[in-house]
Amino acid sequence: MLHSNNDMESCLNFRLDIGSVDDARLCDGPTVLLRHNETLHYISTLTAEPVIVPVNFIALHWVGTIEPGELVIFGVKNIDLENAPSPSIAGGTLKDTSYVLYSIENQKSIPGTCFLPDAYSSVICCLQVCTLQGSDGKFETSVIAASGKQLILFSNGVPEEVCQLPFENPFKLQVASTSRGDLLFIVSFSSGDACAIWKDSLKVAVTWQQVRDILVDDFLGAGFDQILLIFKDDPTKSPGPEDFKITDCCEINYPADTDTSKKDESAEDGCQENQFLTVQALEARLQAGLLFLQELQHDIQVKDRVIKTSCESLTNMTQGKDVIVQSAEKEGLTSLWDDSDNCPDSPSSDPCTSLAIPDCFVEKVWYRVIDDLLVVGVKLSNSVYSSLSNVGLSLIMDQEIASISPVTKCQTNVLKLPINASQVFANQKEPLAKKQRLDDFIKDSLPGDFLRRPCSPSYQNDLERTVTAVTELSPLLPLNNTSCVLLLHARRKNQPDCLLRSEKLIVPCGKISLSLEDILKGNYTVNLFEHCQVGCSLEDVFAVLSAFQKCSFHLLSPDYTLKSVQIWLIGQMQGEPVEHIPDIICSRKPGNNQGTLFIWNSKNPFEGTLTVFYRNDSTLLQCLHSLRRVLPPTCAINTTVLGGKDCLTESLAQSLEEELLALRSSVSSAESKVEKELSQRCKMKKNNGTTDSSSDTKERVQKYREELQIEQMQSDLDTPLAADGDLYSKSMLNAVQLQMNSDSLACRLANL
Fold first, then answer.
1. By CB atoms within 10 Å of each CB, which of 179, 267, 363, 624 scores lowest?
2. Rounded to an integer, what distance in angstroms lies between the CA atom of residue 112 and that of residue 100?
3. What's the pTM value of the predicted model, to 2 decimals?
4. What 3-state DSSP class applies to 462?
5. What distance in Å separates the CA atoms of residue 673 and residue 671, rounded to the nearest whole number?
6. Which tens digit of pLDDT belongs to each residue from 227-236?
């Protein structure tokens, strides 16, 4: 062992009574392997003297370690040697040899067919094991082996890829890991030649001649392997750096090849100008990107500042404090809020004071908890509700608790139930006998309280005057005890078509206090499965209707009556009328359907509308599956499009999206057509330029560059290139049609 201070330390001392050594290997440990004829000796620090391996190896191909530090030997043995009368048949035929893997630690040998087939044992000159993983005597291997003229890659004993070697008679094969993370196979030949082959492609990377020896190691301490080539001595030259070479066929190459550098000097000079221009362009793009990043950071700071100021102003307004709104010009922004001077018909500049609102315009404020949702309701007085439209409700948290954003995301609802005043049999014009049979059938199938539903519900007035807001409860729970101010949004009825600022109304209408302890105790929780029982309030039903999803279906049966719908509601769904609103049927069926609400409006015996209030989509799917089984086979079920502001808003958004996509498509089509024409012109110019064989490459590149600069200047100064007339007409016609649709939806939405 050689230490860093050039001291030698003796690790092993041994003596062998053999005349010559056919093969010698130095392994980790250290362990020394010596082969004489077919006898293999090994000695290590763990053995006092040389030990003979019980396997007769006629060739050693590879020695390595596997987990956990087990030393294994892979070689060739003669399979007929044990039965031979004398050990004189060392050179066997193809069928007399086979591969074997021997473990020194376990002193066991197994067949080596998982590395290479035995048929290759007499033709393989050298090999290297790339990967070896094994357990319980089973191995997964990847082996690279060299025969007389080929390099073969084996996987689990099966040949996969073959590469033709540039020279013959290889005798040594090594593996190196380069700086790029690739593997190189270095093959040495008996003629003094050598080559390096990439593992991924099995293509020759480089060849060398007059090589005396090749070593592979991390000589530079760079963390990857380098190849040290020692060339044969030339008696006509004095020793110098050209007698060796260190390379990894990638970044490291010492000493550099002077001949190659001279040949490439002219080519590098021709590329320097293009490289300089490329670097300039990249620097310009980098500077533009940094400038854009600075502008974006400034915009984000302005946005955060404006949002914080707006939230503080909104909170102060709800608490009745003086509000000072800064102008947008101070932040370098453009205000989207119309000034009062631009609208002469506006009676006042303050939108909140333009409408006279009595002090007691709210009769009741309540809130309930449904699953993980908080439902807040406000009941308006009859006089105020009749003068308002587009009523909405929002929640503003306390400024001290919600320091970032006091506004909570919520969905506002004005409850409207699809219930007709005249139910079921009011408009029937059927024969008396048939009507009598139907009545008797229903009376026998349905309970009596289901048939005694009032024709003019007393809850309708309270329902119309109640506006609710639904928000998630989870963001409010960490605040423990908090309070929220309720803001009422509305417009005045019977106003002209011009939308004035005075029509808008935003006023505080109440305040609620949320206590985490009360919520956890369930003081405000509505049991979804018990809101049809005696004792629930009308607000509980309103809360459930606001929190649930809603969907309506139109049923049409041309051949049979739809009496089975009522039977299905009371029978299979185990429905019961809600106490305060008997027109609503609540399902008591155990499972996911429990608590689902239904409203059945029968237009005639063959047609009606079923409205379902459900918690999630799976519940709705189960209800429809159960309903379809009891309906007549010819009954058609169609989803009813729900009207109102939300539906029109969604339709308007879709129309605007289609309009933008159409404009983008038309611009892209025109741009692609112009680019195609320019490319054709460039190809024609290029073809015309290549006909002149005497023109130099650098001159033609400079000529194309000047023409490109001229075209860019013309495009900046002159009018842009005109698009095709037919393409422009079709694009504009499509855009105008979409704009007309968007304008129509916007007018309908404004008139609500």
1. 267
2. 4
3. 0.45
4. helix
5. 5
6. 999 998 877 7
